[in-house]
UniProtKB/TrEMBL annotation:
Cofactor(s) listed: Mg(2+)
Entry keyword Magnesium: yes
Enzyme class, spelled out: ligase
EC number(s) stated in the UniProt entry for this protein: 6.3.3.2
Family: Belongs to the 5-formyltetrahydrofolate cyclo-ligase family.
Reactions that this protein is recorded to catalyse: (6S)-5-formyl-5,6,7,8-tetrahydrofolate + ATP = (6R)-5,10-methenyltetrahydrofolate + ADP + phosphate
GO terms for MF: 5-formyltetrahydrofolate cyclo-ligase activity
Protein name per Swiss-Prot or TrEMBL: 5-formyltetrahydrofolate cyclo-ligase
NCBIfam families given in the database record: MTHFS_bact (TIGR02727)
Gene3D superfamilies, sorted: NagB/RpiA/CoA transferase-like (3.40.50.10420)
Entry keyword set: ATP-binding, Ligase, Magnesium, Metal-binding, Nucleotide-binding
Amino acid sequence: MIAALNDHKAALRREALRLRDSIDPKTKKTKDSEIHKNLFQTREFTKAKSVMFFASIRSEPNTLDMIAAALTLNKIIVLPRVNLKERSLEPYIITNLFELVPGYMNIPEPHPELAAKCSAEDIDVIVMPGLAFDKSGGRVGYGGGYYDRFISGIKGQRPVLAAVAYDEQVMESVPVMSYDQRIDMIVTESGVFRVSAA
């Protein structure tokens, strides 16, 4: 059963990546702008005091522009740093994009000597990466489990989990394991879909 689910997830990852990679650059730029606008207009983002982003790479929705814009707002902006030894994410507060350096898998992450470490319990909204999503909150990530472990380790009230994705990445259903964290909302170029009242 678990092996079959893992195979299904692997196939879904390949298909979602193929769909995402196939978006032409001009269309991608337009979609990125709409995702940015839609996220920033949500009540969850507007009222959040602190927001954790991920730094986008390759064909992911462009979050670097979102981070640059968010840094001009009166919010605490957090990015994760991968601790490979512990297989965990460590949240750091950044004040500008120059505090990011290439890290795990060449993903930009906070330089520990330039950024300040913070508590996961202080984060109000986590902007999530992923490959495939469904409208009941299912999420298929890249397979490392970093975000699932990070979120499950947060004590007290869980932050709002907001996935940013292209319409092409939203599927009818995706396989979800017991340890997978369900997202609260999906933000695409078409709009915002709330899984539950976040």
